[in-house]
Design brief:
The chain is an alpha+beta fold. It folds into 2 domains: 49 residues, Single Sheet (N-terminal domain of TfIIb), CATH 2.20.25.10; 87 residues, GMP Synthetase, Chain A, domain 3. It is built from 4 helices and 5 strands. The strands form 2 sheets. It has a 3-stranded antiparallel sheet. A two-stranded antiparallel ribbon has the order 4-5. The longest helix is centred in the middle third of the chain and has 23 residues. The chain is globular. The relative contact order is 0.11.
């Protein structure tokens, strides 16, 4: 992998506007699979071709495993985003992080409110050698910046459109 430069710390500057300002949109399509069941055996592909994965129902849910699943994909996105935000927030504060690690677990669960399903997430941030008070403050500040953390705290705007061709 080639070396990449850290984004400018200006990305942490506040935006003032009346509506969300789009910066990037990732697009994927899930299709195929046994009985056209994308979650259990389909494929996920990004529009740029950089993401191409087989989806498989995990053994814990009665599936064969052998691929990824929506919970793993969400956990990967959350961990990657939080890690990136953590490094930027630390840099802006003048802190050096020798080896930060972010672990995320996303759990598919039964919802006691409606009897259907929900997702839960747990995040663990490891900051070896850092003062605990300073580490706690850094993580709280990162939660204010990371879009995934904000989504889990506040929800996410979304829309659904049906296309029949």
């Amino acid at each position: 992998m080639s070396e990449i430069n850290r984004p400018s710390l200006a990305v942490l500057d506040k935006y003032y506007g009346d509506e969300a300002q789009p910066l990037y949109t990732g697009r994927v399509r899930v299709s195929g699979g046994v009985s056209k069941h994308g979650r259990a055996s389909g494929v996920v592909r990004s529009d740029d071709g950089e993401l191409a994965l087989d989806l498989r129902l995990p053994p814990d849910l009665g599936g064969p495993g052998g691929g990824t699943n929506p919970e793993q994909l969400l956990a990967a996105g959350y961990a990657g985003c939080f890690h990136g935000a953590l490094v930027l927030v630390a840099a802006r504060a003048g802190l050096e992080l020798p080896n930060p690690c972010v672990d995320v677990a996303v759990t598919f669960a039964r919802d006691p409110v409606d009897g259907l399903y929900l997702l839960q997430a747990q995040i663990v941030v490891s900051l070896p050698g850092m003062d605990p008070v300073q580490a706690e403050e850094l993580v709280r500040n990162t939660e204010r910046v990371c879009p995934y953390a904000k989504m889990f705290h506040r929800g996410i705007g979304h829309g659904v459109r049906v296309v029949v061709e």
